[in-house]
Amino acid sequence: xxxxxxxxxSAAIPEAEHSIPPTxxxxxxxxxxxxxxxxxxxxxxxxxxxxxxxxKLRVTCADVAERWVAAACRAKGIxxxxxxxxxxxxxxxxxxxxxxxxxxxSLEDIxxxxxxxxxxxxxxxxxxxxIAPVFPTDKYDAxxxxxxxxxxxxxxxxxxxxxxxxxxxxxxxxxxxxxxxxVLGAGNVASIGPMDALYKLFAEGExxxxxxNPVNEYLGPIIEDAFAELxxxxxxxxxxxxxxxxxxxxxxELVETIHITGSxxxxxxxxxxxxxxxxxxxxxxxPRNDRHITSELGNVTPIIVTPGVWSxxxxxxxxxxxxxSLTNNAGFNCNATRVVITHAAWPQRRAxxxxxxxxxxxxxxxxxxxxxxxxxxxxxxxxxxxxxxxGPRGEGRVPWTFISDVDNRNxxxxxxxxxxxxxxxxxxxxxxxxxxxxxxxxxxxxxxxCWGTLSCSILVHPxxxxxxxxxxxxxxxxxxxxxxxVVVNHWSALSYGFVSTTWGAYPGHTLEDIRSGxxxxxxTYLLDKVQKSVIRGPFTVxxxxxxxxxxxxxxxxxxxxxxxxxDTSWTKIPSLLFSAIRG
Length: 583
Known about the structure:
By secondary structure, the chain is an alpha/beta fold. The protein has helices at residues 3-6, 25-44, 47-63, 65-76, 83-113, 139-144, 192-203, 220-226, 228-232, 243-250, 264-271, 275-284, 312-327, 349-362, 373-383, 414-417, 435-449, 468-480, 494-497, 554-566, 573-581; strands at 123-124, 130-135, 149-154, 180-184, 207-211, 236-239, 257-261, 292-296, 301-305, 337-343, 388-390, 400-403, 424-430, 455-459, 485-488, 502-504, 520-522, 530-536. Helix 7 (192-203) links the parallel strand 4 and strand 5 (207-211).
């Protein structure tokens, strides 16, 4: 597979073999008819009735957690008790049950106060742009994530005076006839499909049919058990299948909205159609499917490294930070780091790149469970035969791959234009007369040359921020980066995992130029007109973050977090902290 075959954007991914037989069209019709019959009832439920459903989900999501993680480990070839098992806890039931718990809090606020109550007062940037603080959500977050803060920036036409009109708006509208929504589930991270469904249900007031992705459809029966109360009430259904079944549901007369997590190629096939006919429709602006469609479609995720004077321990920490963001989930994440941007004149650049290579050498090899991974890695190796590989090769193996010194003058390079969707990342060094000039160039490069607008990170040492010019340049960079999530000093996946932040592309894409998609999910404070989420964290963290590839007790932390979010109590904190310290 060549770069031309891959083209710009998300990688082309073959359809996986099915572990569950595709749902027959008659059964799909039946499921949609049930949802249509209950759509109006869903819009008319009172807040206490919705809270009752969520409280039941809180219990059932916790009940299926062990079975959920065991199934994922079997499918992905993960050894129980390993770091990778911890990933399945954190990216699966932990995130889902946290989502449920935060929705409960927001709906309780709406019941008592008329709208969700933010943890701190909103404020405005000097240009008037409204910023809503959304993390930490409470004293528990503040303790478990010390030094981390998250906020949602709204679009610039929202003012402090009109902010109240843009929070919890579904719950201020008259009940309508209801809407049936199709959620096309992702095959990589287990919580994506059910969390997208929760957003449609509780933020937008739509009943949901979730089509499982063939890659992880084995989780469908478990999710169905977790959402048993929604299923029983006729508000949620799950179906199975591949492209044929997906096309049938996307064009079904009872489906009114669609949410896609996947690739821009899947999106275009749904909206415009395939082949030459689809291309002509796109040129004419005549979509094959004119339903309201939202989407999250991937990214060539950059990390901007701000030069500074770093200690050896800090270099090692940030190298593992970068490598963890690529090796997590075997590299099959839309927020996996794909381009590390450095300053060519940084004296510690080579030391940092060497530390990244050492970290890759330490990372455990993973099963490339997503179809086509070897072919996608081969396309990058064809373009960059000098790439360094770490770990075993051969059947069923795709080594971690690091391509350094990529020439950024060639903005058509595969490293910048194509989401690898496997364990491949790269590095490029930009010029700049000084740190401030470099930061400006790095932001421009990330915005203009890295495909997508989903998420990015910027690393900056606290001593560097003591220089007012650098501090101002970093603040300007955060504002200027056209990404739906900007995370300082850590992996941009935190914006996904915190859940109170939003997850989705930077606004402004169209169906004709979709890139990373349209709309947001998670967003448990139910904010409208979102521009981006911004998270700031300490330059180093101790104890080691549980998402680091060499963390030893992530599986313990995950299991305990499920119990914690299922029934939050201070009494569970000491055990959590004990596991964190031992990591």
